[in-house]
Amino acid sequence: MDEEAAPKRDKNGPKFHCLPHSTQGSARMGTRKKVHTFVRVKPTDDFAHEMIKYGDDNKSIDIHLKKDTRRGVVNNQQTDWSFKLDGVLHNASQDLVYETVAKDVVAQALDGYNGTIMCYGQTGAGKTYTMTGTTENYKHRGILPRALQQVFRMIEERPTHAITVRVSYLEIYNESLFDLLSTLPYVGPSVTPMTIVENPQGVFIKGLSVHLTSQEEDAFSLLFEGETNRIIASHTMNKNSSRSHCIFTIYVEVHSRTLSDEKYITSKINLVDLAGSERLGKSGSEGRVLKEATYINKSLSFLEQAIIALGDQKREHVPFRQCKLTHTLKDSLGGNCNMVLLTNIYGEAAQLEETLSSLRFASRMKLVTTEPAINEKYDAERMVKNLEKELALLKQELAIHDSLANRTLVNYDPMDEIQIAEINSQVRRYLEGTLDEIDIINLRQIQEVFNQFRVVLSQQEQEVESALRRKYTLIDKNDFAAISAVQKAGLVDVDGHLVGEPDGQGFGLGVTPFSAKPGKKSKSKKTFKEQLSSSARKEGASSPVSGKELDVSTSKTQLTPSSKEGDVKDMTIRERETSSTEPLPSDSPKEELRPPRPSTPPPKPVAFEDFKNERGSEINRIFKENKSILNERRKRASETTQRINAIKREMDVTKEALNFQKSLREKQGQVDHVTVRHVPCSFTSQRAPPNS
Ligand code: ADP
Ligand code: MG
What we know:
Elements: E1 6-7, E2 33-34, E3 36-41, E4 52-54, E5 60-64, E6 80-84, E7 87-90, H1 94-101, H2 103-109, E8 115-121, H3 127-131, H4 143-157, E9 161-173, E10 176-179, E11 195-199, E12 202-206, E13 211-213, H5 216-236, E14 245-256, E15 263-273, H6 287-311, H7 324-328, E16 338-345, H8 352-365, E17 369-370, E18 376-378, H9 380-404, H10 417-432, H11 443-471, E19 472-476, H12 480-488, H13 528-540, E20 570-574, H14 578-581, H15 590-593, H16 604-613, H17 617-667
Parallel strand pairs: 3-7, 3-16, 8-15, 8-16
Antiparallel strand pairs: 1-6, 2-17, 4-5, 5-6, 9-10, 9-13, 9-14, 11-12, 14-15, 15-18, 19-20
Helix pairs in contact: 4-5, 10-11
Bound molecules: adenosine-5'-diphosphate (ADP) and magnesium ion.
The site of adenosine-5'-diphosphate (ADP) has 14 residues, from helix 3.
């Protein structure tokens, strides 16, 4: 069980918490995992055996610092430290270092997990040697070329997947970003300076060239190009290569070739060679060196701050944006990636102070936990293609069902205008009674039949309405001038009630039912407006028009409640009947000689009810009959659907058995090319329309 580095004796020294930890390679989504920390000791003939001791399990380092005698015999100077790590690599070959530190991270990248491997330590301790290695001896090649080799080897081992590999090489020097692969002819000069951009997919460097590599050799030549540029730049730009951070990134994208799956995975492996961690600022350096030291000190201490924040579960904010290094690595430090820190140290006594500082950094890093997760994405184009395939397959399956049920020539495509027109005609003929029944073909057709019923119904409603409009004059309820004229004419009172009604319920006028219409029809086609104007003219004379002159036969009038506020409602006032236009004998007693008032039509629903009871009774009867027939057929269709579903279930079972047989045969070494597709389809019966 891992323990954190803890000062052995000093009570005031830093204390570290112990966090639960899972073993490398057991990364699952949602499993928290510690950052793995390793220490590599640079081989030396002058190893400080007295001061540096490794634990028996090779997972800890004890440091013993000789007491500073100048400070006197009694002082509080701490002299012993113990650091627990995931492994100490002493005199380890490049091969062993790769196996221990990088192999799993790279392997998991092809399964969609991001990975970061970082080398930290003072200048000369072996960071670049570990990361890049030397070119003179193939055996001394570092993590970078080996990772590329592993990626391409794994691609070869996975012919079932289409895997693309891209690489980029970034250098951060004095808080400026440099593209180490920008010299390649096809990249072209970068016009705008590179910037760090964050989006939901992660962090990327705008302006940094990313190169597709289809084979190992391409990747190697890119790596070589980058390394050369790093060296050239250190001469031409007078920059010390150990004072810059270098990030080589391998981007992997994995698509399945066999599954035609729309899902694909992406990952990136960041291989980071950090600048020397020694604190140069202290030693009175000036000019360029001081500037470099300031930047290095800053970026490394920001890195440390970010790591402390990442290690502290209570901290919500991690200061990633304080410098280019942490900002660039924002989604590669902690988060969902596999992370490894390799601390390079000297084994000599003279470097012990820096070694101690490097080990402290390592133990802080060990507190950080990450939650490795697969980066899954969806290929929209592939998704559409798959759905199209699925659709075609379902149609085929339906065709099979149809032929089994002796139903031929059934078309499941959306209906065109001609087909819809045909259904409309069928519905009309059916309603007229010239067609006995409408054959049920499929669900789509049933839906369209209902749809056309609705169309015909609403057309009939409109016809009824326009028939009413032809007979009656309509007044817009908001047309106050017309209304007041009506009021003056005595048709309605000021509250909008019909004159003669005991209690009007609002502004609305009814109509005399058809059956109650006066027998005689007027030959005069004088409209109500004309009447109004004529009454207005009369008003100008001595005798104002009596309301009774335009009396409504109230006993036969229906009043409807006013509609909602703002609702424009027409008031219809029946044209005056012949009798009402006839001049009244001036001496007739008013009650007896009161002419029938022009009546107004009832509201639409009432008129429609009347229509159904009278003129439209036959149509209504046919309609009701048809509705019940349709309901009966719907029931039958639903039964058929259930039968189809049962057959489908049977097919599924058979298919499963087939698959089982297939896998059995495959296990027995037989190759079978017959595949059975699973078709997740289900027929659902439509809900019957509410009976009304
Ligand atoms: P850094 O990058 O940390 O500044 P380098 O990797 O450049 O240090 O190492 C400095 C020198 O030490 C190089 O010449 C390198 O070849 C050598 N060196 C470092 N580590 C080892 C090692 N483990 N085995 C052999 N040589 C090493
Ligand atoms: Mg270096």
